[in-house]
Amino acid sequence: MATLDRREILIIFASFLIGSAAGWWSRMHWGGGLIAVAVTLAGTVAGYLIIVTVLRAAGHPVG
């Protein structure tokens, strides 16, 4: 089993925070539980992809 280094854990944690904020925002404005779950998942994936793209553009070895 592969282990995660500190950088990967921080990326996953930051993307989870982004997704959670997106889910919270959608729940406050639209009120639907299923919609909030879908937005949380989509926000987490989008946050991860944005973070990885920015880090790769800055020259950091990711992934």
Describe the structure in your own words.
The chain is mainly alpha-helical and 63 residues long. Helices cover 79% and strands 0% of the residues. Helix 1 packs antiparallel against helix 2. The relative contact order is 0.18.
**Structural class given helices, strands, pairing?**
mainly alpha
What is the count of DSSP helices, taking H or I runs of 4+ residues? 2
- Mean of the pLDDT scores? 89
Report on the biggest sheet: none
Task: Using the CA coordinates, give the radius of gyration.
Answer: 14 Å
Categorize the overall geometry.
elongated
Helical percent range? Answer: over 70%
Q: What share of the residues does DSSP label as strand, in percent?
A: under 5%
Terminal-residue CA separation: 16 Å
Note the main attributes of this structure.
single chain; 63 residues; mainly alpha
Brief sketch in words of this structure:
This protein is mainly α and 63 residues long. It has helices spanning 6-30, 33-57. The protein is elongated and about 40 Å long.
Summarize the helices and strands and which ones pair or pack.
Elements: H1 6-30, H2 33-57
